[in-house]
Amino acid sequence: MTTNLLIKNASAVMTGLSGHAARLDTTQGGDIRVIGGKIAAIGRLTPDANERVIDATDCVVYPGWVNTHHHLFQSLLKGIPAGINLALLPWLSAVPVPYRRFFDREEALRIAARIGIVELLLSGCTTIADHQYHYYPDIAYNASEAVFSEAEKLGVRFSLLRGGQTHMRIIDKQPPKECTPEPLDLIMRRIDDDVRRFHESGDFSMRRVVSAITTPTWSCKPDELRELARHARGLGIHLHSHLSETYDYVRYCREVYNCTPIDFCEQHEWLGKDVWFAHMVHLSQAEIAKCGATQTGISHCPQSNCRLASGVAPVPEMLEANVPVSLAVDGAASNEAADMANEAHTAWMVHRAAKQNAAAIDAETVIHLGTQGGARVMGWNGIGTLEVGKAADIAIYSLDHPRYFGLHDVAVGPVVSGGSVHCKAVICNGRIVVEDGAIPGFDMEQLKHDAKRLVAMMIANTV
Ligand SMILES: [Zn+2]
């Protein structure tokens, strides 16, 4: 049920737009009216009899964050000691690959997805793209249906990035049967099914499907990559994958294909405005220019890149080259919290440190990347900004916490002060999905209990 809403008296409104338009000029009022899931008016507004007023005194208002790359199943794999100090490749072999065996039952995937979605909602995130690669030929349940169902129950906008692999990476010794590759025709048939059942096209859709083989270089054969691209474009869906997260991707492409990863993707029809890649930490200037020229986008995941010691993506250079840049938390096995406000804080910090330049990126730009940037990267044009006619996906952050006392510029508080935000309300598609820091009607105690039970089971069954 959507209700008409009026958000009144906010201290500041960030629009999600870039440059001078990043901050709403509130001289004409900063109230926001929501009707039928969309923003109907912005200005100095008086309440109608039939609308609910949300008093945003001492609050700042942003568009809901758009998280463009996640692995929700990893929400039960945080801080596993065997992988806590490992870099990407040994970490993959120590955590995500062997722990796939614990997701042989639907319940584990559902609880994990629920944890991740709940965390994101509480951080002000309203759109989630889940790079879900837990598929294998004889899987006993429909993993796509499980994650869509969890997203729908919590009221969040959701894109399934349908991953998978047609062969194992040679470095994975004795992987569990849950890592068995799917033949290409099975992957494509299952993508067809997902598109038929779940995909809604259009700027305001609540559910999307994207074709997202896990990595272009290691998860399938080059010819299959081209087939997947053509298959997705035939269905009218977008393409996504991991790329150049560590230097190993670059070295592999150079040694095996004698080209850069971006050139390899170009040769197999995997560049364009309907394609985005997670990470892209290790890119040459020529690759950055090619991403800008083709409008190939990136999910920037600074916390995961820090955690796995992968490096720092050249985001300032990408912005200079007009590459579409978005923010994402990545899976919780390499980023122990799915918190988009925290991710934005890290993005704001890490480029300044890496460049030794305090002007390398500003908070307004980070907010833009985490909102409209995500919408641009995923081609989801109805979301990501607070403008009349756009989707009512809105986060209202309370600054009633000593963390924010003393701030001279409250508008950027949720990003520059870091830490956990407190949402007075989060609205998705015109519906209140978080209220006073909690999810209405949601049993958090039960989720805590389920998480503890499943973690204890995994620990008891790990040698
Ligand atoms: Zn990832």
CA-CA gap between termini: 48 Å
Broad CATH class of the largest domain: Alpha Beta
Biggest sheet statistics: 5 strands, mixed
How would you sum up the global shape?
Answer: globular
- β-strand percent reads 15-25%
What is the CATH architecture annotation of the largest domain? Alpha-Beta Barrel
Query: Which runs of at least 5 residues are low in confidence (pLDDT < 50)?
Result: none
Q: What ions, cofactors and ligands are bound?
A: zinc ion
Beta strands, count: 17
Question: What do you see in this structure?
Answer:
With 463 residues, this protein is α/β, with parallel strands linked by helices. It has two domains: 5-63 and 389-435, Urease, subunit C, domain 1 (Roll), CATH 2.30.40; 65-378, Alpha-Beta Barrel (TIM Barrel), CATH 3.20.20.140. It has helices at residues 88-94, 106-122, 143-154, 184-198, 222-235, 247-257, 261-267, 285-294, 302-307, 315-320, 340-355, 363-378, 413-416, 444-460, and strands spanning 5-8, 12-13, 31-35, 38-43, 52-55, 59-63, 65-70, 125-132, 157-162, 207-211, 239-243, 275-279, 297-300, 325-327, 394-398, 423-428, 431-435. Helix 3 (143-154) links the parallel strand 8 and strand 9 (157-162). The protein is globular and about 65 Å long. It starts with a strand and ends with a helix. 53% of the residues are buried. The mean pLDDT is 96. It binds zinc ion. Residues 69, 71, 131, 242, 278, 330-331 line the site of zinc ion.
